[in-house]
Structure formats: C-alpha cells, structure tokens
Design goal:
By secondary structure, the protein is of the alpha+beta class. The chain is built from three helices and four strands, in the order βββααβα. It has two domains: 48 residues; 78 residues, no CATH class. Bound molecules: zinc ion.
Length: 131
C-alpha cells in the first residue's frame, strides 16, 4: 500500500506533522487468537491485550448476601465463568495518508511569518493591492 510521506515545510524544508490515527476497540473470546485487522489502513500500534472481569456479576453476587459462606461460593462461581469475560485491546489505525499538526504548508507559525516577511520584503503584494 502506498503511504503518503510527511508534509514538508514550504519555508524551512523540514518534514512536519504526525500520522492522524484512529483507535478501534478489538474484542474476542478468551482463549482464541486476537482477530487480525482486515481494514485498508495501517496498524500503527496494538495495545497490550487484557482480560475483562465480570465485575458487575461479582458485585451483585456479593451484595446479594451477607452470609460469608454463600458469598465465598458466589465469588468462586463468578470466577469459574470464563464466558463472561473476554479479551480486549486497542488498535491504532492510520489511513496511510492523513497527517495532522503544523500550519500547512508550514511547520510552525514562525516559519509562516518568516516566509511572509521575506515575501513582503521581496516586493510581493496581494493581487489588487492591500485592502
Ligand atoms: Zn518550517
């Protein structure tokens, strides 16, 4: 896939900007492989996968009783339910062409200002004169 290069400043010539990435949440069953990315973008980074816990179920079970024996059994039951948790991570995707940052076509306002001053000093004036 062709990827666009970082834009180059029209004054100092330095490359500027960062890839504009979107994040997406990936979720899959515990014990299975993380699903592959199937989009048209570029995976810039994938977060560390983690397993969710069913906190709500556990909290409800614990809250349902004050009997420590039953509570312990409820907690054990919740812990034995792998289908209630799943794996999640975050992927950062770049579309291969979008950049953000800078002051197109300049890297900084300082470069834009210097460019404008030099252009002015060189005699450039807006078409039709200043308004
Ligand atoms: Zn610059």
């Amino acid at each position: 896939m062709a990827q666009s290069k970082r834009p180059v400043c029209g004054h100092c010539g330095k490359a500027y900007g960062q890839r504009a990435v979107d994040s997406e949440q990936v979720r899959w069953p515990v014990g299975e492989q993380m699903p592959e990315y199937r989009g048209n973008g570029v995976v810039v980074k994938t977060g560390e996968p983690y397993r969710t816990t069913s906190r709500a179920a556990l909290a409800a079970a614990v809250a349902a009783t004050s009997n420590p024996e039953i509570r312990a059994r409820a907690e054990a039951d919740v812990a034995k339910m792998p289908e209630q948790s799943y794996m999640v991570t975050t992927r950062w995707i770049w579309d291969g062409e979008s950049w953000w940052g800078g002051y197109k076509p300049f890297c900084t306002l300082r470069c834009a200002l210097e460019f404008a001053r030099k252009a002015f000093a060189a005699g450039y004036r807006p078409r039709g004169g200043a308004k």
